[in-house]
Amino acid sequence: MEALANRGKYKVIDRLESGGGYEAFTAVDIEAREHAEVLVNRYGDPETVRRLLPLFFEARERGCPGLVELFTDYGRFAAVFRAARGAPLRAAVKRGLSHELRRELEERMFLQAIALSQLPLELQNSLLCEENILVELDSRRVSVQMRARPERFQRGDAAVLELGKLSECLLGRRFCSMRAELEFLDALRTGTYRTVGAAYAAWRALCDRREEWKAYNAKNAPARLFYGLVTWLRRRKGGRALRARYRY
Known about the structure:
By secondary structure, the protein is α+β, with helices and mostly antiparallel strands. The chain has two domains: 4-82, Phosphorylase Kinase, domain 1; 87-208. It has ten helices and nine strands. The protein has helices at residues 46-61, 89-92, 99-116, 121-127, 158-171, 179-189, 196-207, 210-217, 221-236, 239-244; strands at 4-5, 10-19, 22-29, 37-43, 67-73, 76-82, 87-88, 133-136, 141-144. The strands form two sheets. It has a six-stranded antiparallel sheet with strand order 1-2-3-4-6-5, with helices on one face. Strand 8 and strand 9 (141-144) form a beta hairpin. Helix 3 (99-116) packs antiparallel against helix 5 and helix 6 packs antiparallel against helix 7. The protein starts with a strand and ends with a helix. The mean pLDDT is 90.
């Protein structure tokens, strides 16, 4: 494994992936006083470079979050981002985590998605996926590891559908979940929201239903169980038709 990249500026720490004309590795910037850690995406396939180069330059013009620099290196193209910290989402969101904390992490995840929504759609779709979402529970921080696999560059609403999967992981579908929250997850899963902004607006509208949340949180265990039973009975009618519309 090579020790340096970009003519000696970056010292490689760990190679995360290599194959198919794409490499991802973490490195340190040895020219920076604090030796900042970075994540490098490097593309070697000529067709991939021609396809992705304009997207990354457009992202830079739009103020791409965390982007350090773009450079070419012996016919290859690389995009360098500040490294993110935290545990993978599914490992961090353990059983027993309070629902209040889950909702807070959902909000912070949406804010990260909104920051990415300014990017070209293909790049946004590449970055917003479960493997890139990192969580630090102590600081209640959600970050995006900017690992951009070439096969994930696509048009369409992939980013919004990924948000739905991430929300399912964070919020969960519990027997006693609030009906409005289940309806929000259903809307994400059926592709009702066409953009990240529309999905976030729906999430904020749900959070603003303070009286409904207050009444729900005030219920004791038997009352929540009864609430869950009533919700299940109501949702059972038409459930098959709803599931037929699920996108994932």
